[in-house]
Design goal:
Radius of gyration: 17 Å
Helix content: 10-25%
Number of strands: 8
Order of helices and strands: EEEEHHEHEHEHEH
Length: 194
Amino acid sequence: MSQANPNLIASHKDILHFPKDGTPSLAPNDWQTWSSDRDEGGLPDLEHGAHKVLVPFSWWIKHHKEQDILTRAKNGQIGVWFAADDDILKHSDLIEEDKALWPIVAAHFPLFRDGRSFSTAALLRDRFAWDKEIRAIGDVLIDQLLQGARVGFDSFELRHDQNLDVALKQFDLYTVTTQNSWRGKRSLLQASSH
């Protein structure tokens, strides 16, 4: 967990990764999430020699044309995260233009009870045909994993006090789904007739 730098969003050192056609697993978190939207120019300083950073989409809007930013993005070192109140449909042209540069996007949960980022993930999958990683970041609790996986998240940067071993077991709780999901069709429940 990184708490030394106030410009970074603190999280576990591992993420829960759940690819669409795979099984849940823990993986090293090699992305630092920059929390600041200050217009300082350039990229934020990264800790411990890290070379990958998720920047706020509002920051990306201001700096995406700068050559050093474009170079690092093309090298897979910059992804963006969307705040819960970012209107991604308003910026659809920019997202369509730049999404090929991002190896990953994330949606931020400012509070666990604020579900707007579920809609962000669903819009990214459905309207923007995003087929790469979408990560849930911020105040992400174990209770949100199943819903998040249904709408399009395939990795979760859980809040630092959440138990990763318990989190891994959440995806084995249910074998039947009765709602539509980004992961596939809902299960058909058949009544037994005698």
